């Protein structure tokens, strides 16, 4: 592209505002940068600890996970293009990166241990149509994607336990840590954008729609239970309980954001090697976790100084007491 030319696909290229530096969405970006690269510690040369039958099942499941993670990657990318504020874009960009690692890792496992990557099942096509429908607005897609990511964390919780210390179990554990962060990012972003909307979101209806369109039903619960060696009822209870918790938390976050005020506070951004800055952050109960960590660090440092001063005072007192004893001996002589 020639210098000075314009692209219709590039919009809202605003810099991160001074007032955005303490936002929860930007903290999700910082958290992703600090997150341990679990995939670098995988031992691909380790022998499989699974029986031949269990290994075949593991490869089939890994193949389907590679397809579901690709849908997650494409949806996060669609949201990245739809987002108009730079802070949300930064956070979503890390989600796209994470999902690409998941796709590659699951595909590599299936190919290395099973010799092939199975074609996606029909359910994936329905999920893709649901999450990537052209008619969906940003907030609706963001909410549905967040709920879908929540379902993924529930499934990966069971699969990481089902395959234990085997390589696939370690992969699911690593992916689970990423997906949990994506859910937090999505919930914060939904609350941020929904709090500026006049119409309130019906979170209960959104949860029912997500269950229906994602195919999260008793058949799916039974499949997860069979692999994990538990009961369908237990799987269903966990899914539904955690879905309810997420919906309630988002509703509460929206209300808190609408009622909250902004206040100036000093934050030490030590993770990025940046100097201390003054930012606008939400008053309690919504508070930037960057600011919370900085305050805790400052309190810890203050306590350490106080302890050192107390220790110094004790030494000084001991020296004074020693001098008194010396003086007593001298007078006695």
Tell me about this structure.
The chain is mainly alpha-helical. Helix content is 69%, strand content 4%. The protein has ten helices and two strands, in the order αααααααααββα. It has helices at residues 24-34, 52-82, 86-114, 122-131, 138-162, 167-194, 203-214, 218-228, 232-259, 289-332, and strands at 262-267, 277-282. A two-stranded antiparallel ribbon has the order 1-2. α2 (52-82) runs antiparallel to α5, α5 (138-162) packs antiparallel against α6 (167-194) and α6 packs parallel to α9 (232-259). The longest helix has 44 residues, at 289-332. The N and C termini lie far apart (97 Å). The model is unreliable at 1-14, 261-272 and 275-294 (pLDDT under 50).
Helix and strand layout, with pairings?
Elements: H1 24-34, H2 52-82, H3 86-114, H4 122-131, H5 138-162, H6 167-194, H7 203-214, H8 218-228, H9 232-259, E1 262-267, E2 277-282, H10 289-332
Helix pairs in contact: 1-3, 1-6, 2-3, 2-4, 2-5, 3-6, 5-6, 5-7, 5-8, 5-9, 6-9, 8-9
What's a concise summary of this model?
The chain is mostly helical.
List the keywords.
333 residues, mainly alpha, 10 helices, disordered N terminus
Our count of helices gives: 10
Strand/helix succession: HHHHHHHHHEEH
The major β-sheet equals: 2 strands, antiparallel
As residue ranges, the low-confidence spans are 1-14, 261-272, 275-294
Q: List how many beta strands DSSP finds.
A: 2
Mean pLDDT over all positions: 80
Strand content: under 5%
Alpha-carbon distance between the two ends: 97 Å
Q: Output the radius of gyration.
A: 26 Å
Secondary-structure-based class equals: mainly alpha
Helix-residue proportion: 55-70%
- Order of the strands making up the biggest sheet: 1-2
């Amino acid at each position: 592209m020639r210098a000075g030319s314009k692209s219709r696909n590039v919009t809202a290229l605003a810099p991160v505002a001074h007032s955005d530096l303490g936002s929860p969405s930007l903290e999700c970006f910082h958290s992703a940068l600090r997150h341990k690269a679990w995939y670098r510690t995988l031992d691909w040369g380790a022998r499989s600890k699974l029986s031949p039958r269990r290994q075949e099942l593991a490869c089939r499941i890994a193949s389907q996970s590679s397809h579901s993670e690709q849908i997650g990657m494409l949806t996060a990318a669609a949201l990245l293009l739809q987002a108009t504020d730079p802070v949300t874009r930064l956070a979503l960009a890390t989600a796209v990166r994470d999902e690409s690692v998941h796709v590659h890792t699951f595909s590599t496992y299936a190919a290395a241990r099973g010799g092939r990557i199975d074609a996606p099942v029909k359910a994936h096509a329905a999920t893709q149509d649901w999450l990537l429908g052209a008619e969906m607005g940003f907030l609706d897609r963001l909410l549905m994607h967040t709920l879908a990511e929540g379902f993924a964390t529930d499934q990966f919780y069971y699969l990481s336990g089902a395959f234990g210390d085997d390589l696939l179990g370690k992969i699911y554990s690593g992916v689970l840590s990423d997906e949990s962060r994506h859910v937090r990012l999505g919930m914060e972003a939904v609350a941020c954008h929904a709090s500026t909307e006049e119409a309130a979101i019906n979170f209960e209806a959104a949860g029912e729609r997500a269950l229906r369109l994602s195919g999260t039903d008793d058949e799916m619960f039974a499949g997860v239970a069979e692999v994990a060696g538990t009961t369908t009822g237990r799987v269903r209870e966990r899914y539904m309980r955690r879905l309810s918790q997420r919906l309630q938390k988002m509703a509460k976050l929206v209300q808190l954001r609408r009622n909250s005020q902004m206040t100036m506070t000093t934050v030490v951004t030590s993770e990025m090697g940046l100097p201390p800055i003054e930012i606008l952050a939400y008053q309690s109960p919504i508070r930037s976790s960057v600011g919370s960590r900085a305050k805790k660090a400052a309190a810890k440092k203050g306590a350490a100084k106080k302890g050192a001063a107390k220790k110094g005072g004790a030494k000084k007192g001991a020296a004074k007491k020693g001098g008194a004893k010396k003086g007593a001996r001298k007078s006695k002589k």
